[in-house]
Amino acid sequence: MGRIVTFVYGLVAYAFFLVTFLYAIGFVTGLVVPKTIDGGTVVPVAEALLVNLALLSLFAVQHSVMARPGFKRWWTSVIPHSAERPTYVLLATAALALLLWQWRPIPEIVWRVADPQLAAGFTGLSLVGWLIVLLSTFMISHFELFGLYQVIMNLLGRAIPSAQFKTPYLYNFVRHPIYLGFIIAFWATPVMTVGHLLFAAVTTAYILVGIFLEERDLVETFGDEYRRYRARVSMLVPFWRKG
Question: What is the signed CA dihedral for 6, 12, 14, 20, rounded to 10 degrees?
Answer without folding.
Answer: -150
